[in-house]
# Entry
Amino acid sequence: EKIAQIVTFESELLQKFTEFYGRVCQWVLGVLDPGQAWSSGVASSDSPELPINKLFSTLPEFILDDIADTLIQSSRFRINILANVNVQYISTLIQTCVCHPAHFRNPYLVSKLIEVIYMYSPDVQGTSTHIFEMIITPATSEKYLLPALLNFYTDVESTGATSEFYDKFSIRYHISIITKTLWYASNTTHRLTLIQCLGDAKYVRFINMLINDTTFLLDESIDALRSIRDTQKLMADTEKWEEMREEDKAAKLKQLAQDERQCKSYLTLANETVQMFHYLSQSIQQPFLRAELVDRVAAMLNYNLQQLCGPKCADLKVQDPKKYGFQPKELVKQITDIYINLDSPVFLEAVGGDERSYKPELFALAITRLVNANMKSAYEIEVFSHFAEKCKKVTQQNKKWT
# Structure
């Protein structure tokens, strides 16, 4: 990684390294799948199957690790230089490896290649890049890249590293950004592939993980916000703060710094996860309404709506919330949109049947906040109010029958 950092500051050296890595990738592709004609850097056949190659499995991991390190460092400092270098073999190898993670014993290596795709995405660079387009454009990418990313999202519970708990959220964040970019791309093939994937029962686990992550990340973020607010209130009481011992002050300040770091990190991931729920539910509802998922989706939405609009929501008012990426209005707007996106008899039953968080009064509070903060148009608020009323009626009818 140190060499990669040095290389990125020397334009000519970086170009030579990239050309060298291109030749290395050409050779690795030949080892990985000797049956393909790789002369142009593009696979000559379109097959999702790639048998495990014993010779490829003997290659040292540092080959791909070094390439990934250099590309990640280059994305931070020397993005324009790669536009003038032929990266066809590099992009093809990255795409091929990410689409066939079973060839790697170490999931960390696959996650690093995913990070390369993320670092060159428009969301990070502000505009699309040559290497990103070359990775996502081939027909094999259009068919297999997103399914592979969704599978890796669910399989990345363990990376083998001591920091794997935090690593998995970082990797999932990268996948979320790539997925969003492909969803909104002008070429709709990736979007159609994703819709087809989510309609398949084998991707229930992905939606389950999405629910788990949303619940956990928002929960941790809200706990951190409450702790930050408590410390800020204590510090604002000058007399009480000055009476405290120096070691107690130091401990409070240390805890505040930790809460702020955690809050910002968790909210960055939480915002992206909620956004994914939002745009997916706009176009495809059935996967979220499956019998094994609908109750969990409803409970997750109800619980988070209660946290953001319920009686204790004032506990989340901190100084400079944007510093932590806390956008309560946007979160409430997206969550109430998801309710509307999934509006159906089975979903109404699930929302009203959630005994932990559902109360008609909660929806009334949410509607009041939507109006007072001018979060939605009058028509959108009317639609949500109608949903809340239908939910209330369904719940009342169910109570009569029990």
Summary: The radius of gyration is 24 Å. Residues 234 and 309 are 24 Å apart (CA to CA). The mean pLDDT is 87.
